[in-house]
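User: Second chain of the day. Same drill as before.
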Amino acid sequence: MQDKWAEISIHTTQEATEAVAAVFHELGAGGVVIEDPDLIQSYRRSGNWTDCIFPDEPAVDYVTVVGYLPSDTELPGKLRILSQRIDELAGHSLDKGRGTIHWREVRETEWADSWKQFFHTARIGRRFVVKPSWEDYTPQPDDIILDLDPGMAFGTGTHGTTILCLESLETLVEPGMTVFDIGAGSGILSIAAAKLGATSVQAVEYDKMATETALQNVAANAVSNRVTVSQGNLMDDLTGQADIIVANLVADLILQLAPAIPSRLKTEGCFLASGIIKDRLADVTAALLQQGLHVTKVNEAGEWAAVIACRSQV
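Assistant: Same format as last time:
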């Protein structure tokens, strides 16, 4: 079992965030943490995040993208590639911003403990309450509690892309539905779908460690009878058709998925895609339209967007 990890942080711009995240994915990071202070503040000021613990602060002009890679003999080479790819962003008309790379070695237990400083109970949408496993909370009537321990996975519900997904699932999921969750991370969206009444949720995650974390979270939320979690690539190992397919990824991966989406959706099914930087929104919507899907809604939070596209006009 991998115990030592390199925690790598890059200061960049919002427009380059997705490209930097894509480089991390190419180097083998199971996911990234995107720390966007401006997104948090804009969502806080919207009044939708009623239990937000972050203070109101001035806007900033940078985003920090954090990825975790094994601290092994391949790390120096990966760091060189990372630095080179960041410098190449200008050739793609992207401003890398500071582009500075910092890294430190952490143990898995240290990483997990560090999360506890930043991850606290938060209300999201109308009914969801995302609660870390180490905090207590007294439920209110109609609350849907999502007990979560991110471990070394990604997806705590506090990033704008996950918030957009949770809010959209509240309007999309109906009792008895089948849901596919592509790139499940910590399993938060699969758990949410099950607690909204979905009777069958198939979750797939590329990263082995995140898969294990998702399985643990599914069990902790007592939805193992409705949620299956497997390690795999996109939809390769999923069976049947779904009422809803949710993919909180990045635009490039969503574009890869697009051709396969219509055949994996039921007649009235919908695809919920998030993790899309707004500069790539037009690319994603065009690809979905090309596949014969109808874009029924676009939601935005800061520089991020989520798209709902359905097989039939809603």
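The chain has a mean pLDDT of 82.

User: Great, on to the next one.
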